[in-house]
Design brief:
globular; 1 helix; mainly beta; 214 residues; 5-stranded antiparallel β-sheet; 6-stranded antiparallel β-sheet
């Protein structure tokens, strides 16, 4: 039976360990989107730090080669047409008054766990178990649906490997009877961000531990 999961990008699940679960969401004041940035950012999409002090989209559909800062959860800006504050599930790439900041909400905790749907068959539960603690990339990390503002990101089964530069670490899967067909796409894989920019050995170049800033 096909799984019911569609594409939704990275969905916060819990935190690793026994720490208080805040879903990893920091106050907007830490992060902003540059006014004039025409790249759309979707809810559930990974974002990266930029040398300008702003955040942006990864440089490639698979997640790019820059250590990820976290996962985009929406934004607030003053609309250029109405002059009123606007809260949006995603950044549409335009429409903000340039006299005001575009405030970004980001899940940025390196210990945050996420659920992401698989893009293809995992063959069997035994195959999925063998993939736990391996790494993987996105089938797409930079596309979404404008009508909902939600990311279309999925975990690319074909990329699962031990390669350090891959952007996600597989930690397991969600026990969900409606999404339990391992022979079909849509298993809810539990992952954390690999090479997280804010981790103790965070890196700009994914897979290369360092404390160097942008």
């Amino acid at each position: 039976m096909a799984n019911s999961n569609g594409s939704f990008g990275l969905r916060p699940l819990s935190k690793m360990g026994s720490a208080t679960n805040s879903t990893g969401l920091s106050n907007y004041s830490m992060y902003e989107i540059a006014n004039g940035n025409t790249d759309k950012l979707y809810h559930g999409e990974p974002v990266i730090p930029l040398s300008t002090g702003f955040i942006g989209a990864p440089g490639a559909a698979a997640g790019g080669t820059v250590g990820l800062l976290g996962v985009f959860q929406g934004c607030k800006y003053v609309a250029s047409t109405t002059g009123k504050p606007t809260w949006s599930n995603y950044w549409p790439g335009s429409g903000a008054d340039s006299n005001h900041p575009i405030e970004a909400y980001v899940n940025d905790d390196p210990m945050q766990l996420y659920v992401i749907a698989t893009d293809a068959s995992w063959t069997s539960k035994a195959t999925a178990r063998a993939a736990v603690f391996a790494n993987a990339n996105f089938s797409t990390a930079i596309t979404g649906t404008d009508t909902t503002g939600v990311s279309l990101g999925r975990l690319a089964i074909s990329t699962i490997a031990t390669t350090a530069a891959l952007q996600m670490r597989i930690m397991g899967w969600v026990d969900d009877p409606e999404n339990a067909d391992f022979s079909a796409a849509g298993i809810g894989a539990i992952v954390r961000l690999n090479n997280h920019f804010n981790s103790n050995n965070g890196a700009i170049a994914a897979g290369t531990p360092s404390t160097t800033g942008v």
